[in-house]
Specification:
Elements (H helix, E strand, L loop, with lengths): L1 E5 L4 H12 L6 E5 L8 E4 L2 E4 L3 H6 L4 E4 L3 H13 L3 E4 L11 E2 L2 H4 L9 E3 L3 H17 L1 E10 L6 H11 L30 H13 L6 E8 L6 E9 L5 H9 L4 E3 L11 H4 L5 E8 L6 E8 L3 H17 L4
Parallel strand pairs: 1-2, 1-5, 5-6, 6-8, 7-8, 9-10, 12-13
Antiparallel strand pairs: 3-4, 9-11, 11-14, 13-14
Helix pairs in contact: 1-10, 5-7, 5-10
The protein binds 3-amino-D-alanine (2RA).
3-amino-D-alanine binds next to helix 5.
EC number: 1.2.1.11
Function: Catalyzes the NADPH-dependent formation of L-aspartate-semialdehyde (L-ASA) by the reductive dephosphorylation of L-aspartyl-4-phosphate.
Organism: Flavobacterium cauense R2A-7
């Protein structure tokens, strides 16, 4: 497979390359792509050196698959050009996610909707992926009525500038700000910009993308997305009301038997998911599984995942794996 990694020099792009190598994705030719300022830079992949190329050069090289993590504007402009050249694009930005003609895919949940005709495929938002990974099997069994989610999101979701801001603040240095406020010793209840309804884009992604992936607009979702000074991954406190009742032991067993999910749930041994543990791993970790005693048919869970891996790069690579395995590229 000839594979282009668009945004190869960015935070997610670097993880994308790592995951492609770790999973031994069948690459015959790698095309690292970035903005003009990075053209000519060398990157290393599986012991070989590759020169970064610009967008048009990459289009002309007619890759089989292009995995994008280069922001919405770049995706909007260039994904159609790659697709027109015959390349299948897997895009990690929000540009195509809510486009009714584009598929929004978490392979363990809905890869089967993919066909050869899908030339631009959307990777969901990191906080959506980890939540639906845990909720999809439970929705199938108990039929979700309503989800209330609060997220505690890693600064790596914002990018290198945010990581630098935290490092500077920790060292007592006044540097460039990724956020309106200090993030060290703080929690900022704003991820991305506010929409008309007073919710942030990040919160509305959790609402809209969850309904699209689970193919059920009747599922009520409300979210609060918070940025915290953490680097290993996103954490989410999820309260989910079902149409039908459940046994907590059965919920634990369903999750335990779901590919891509690791249940870490034993309060006697203080076992529960944490970003410190999830960092660098591809699974979604679920714990603190307990009945919400304040209302019937309702469950509380704590969900943690490395937002750069299953939240972005790994999910995209798994989509690519599905395409290859099912001869859709
Ligand atoms: C964030 N999910 O965490 C968004 C974009 N990666 O900021």
């Amino acid at each position: 497979m000839k594979v282009a990694v668009v945004g190869a020099t960015g935070m997610v792009g670097e993880v994308m390359l790592k995951v492609l190598a770790e999973r031994n994705f069948p690459i015959t030719e790698l095309i690292p792509v970035a903005s003009e300022k990075s053209v000519g830079k060398e990157i290393e992949f599986k012991g070989n050196k590759y020169k970064v190329v610009g967008m048009q050069t990459a289009v002309d090289m007619k890759a089989d698959i292009a995995v994008f993590s280069a922001g919405g504007d770049t995706s909007k402009e260039w994904a159609p050009k790659f697709a027109a050249a015959g390349t299948t694009v897997i895009d990690n930005s929000s540009a195509w996610r809510m486009d009714p003609t584009k598929k929004l895919v978490v392979p363990e949940i809905n890869a089967s909707i993919l066909t050869k005709d899908d030339k631009i495929i959307a990777n969901p938002n990191c906080s959506t992926i980890q939540m639906v990974m845990a909720l999809a099997p439970l929705h199938k069994k108990y039929d979700i009525k309503r989800i209330i989610v609060s997220t505690y999101q890693s600064i790596t979701g914002t990018g290198v500038k945010a990581v630098r801001q935290l490092e500077n603040e920790y060292a007592g240095i006044q540097g460039e700000m990724a956020y309106k406020y200090p993030i060290h010793r703080n929690a900022i209840p704003q991820c991305d910009v506010f929409e008309e309804n007073g919710y942030t884009k990040e919160e509305m992604k959790l609402v809209r993308e969850t309904q699209k992936i689970l193919e059920d607009k009747t599922i009520a979702v409300t979210a609060t997305a918070v940025r915290v000074p953490v680097v290993g991954g996103h954490s989410e406190a999820v309260n989910v009301e079902f149409e039908n009742d459940f046994e907590v032991s059965e919920v634990r067993s369903i999750l335990h038997n779901t590919p891509g999910i690791t249940v870490q749930d034993n309060i006697d041994t203080f076992t529960y998911p944490m970003p410190l543990y999830a960092e660098g791993k591809n699974d979604v970790f679920v714990g603190r599984i307990r009945r919400d005693e304040s209302q019937p048919n309702t469950l509380n869970m704590w969900i943690v995942a490395d937002n750069l891996r299953k939240g972005a790069a790994t999910n995209a690579v798994q989509i690519a794996e599905y395409l290859v395995e099912n001869k859709l590229v």
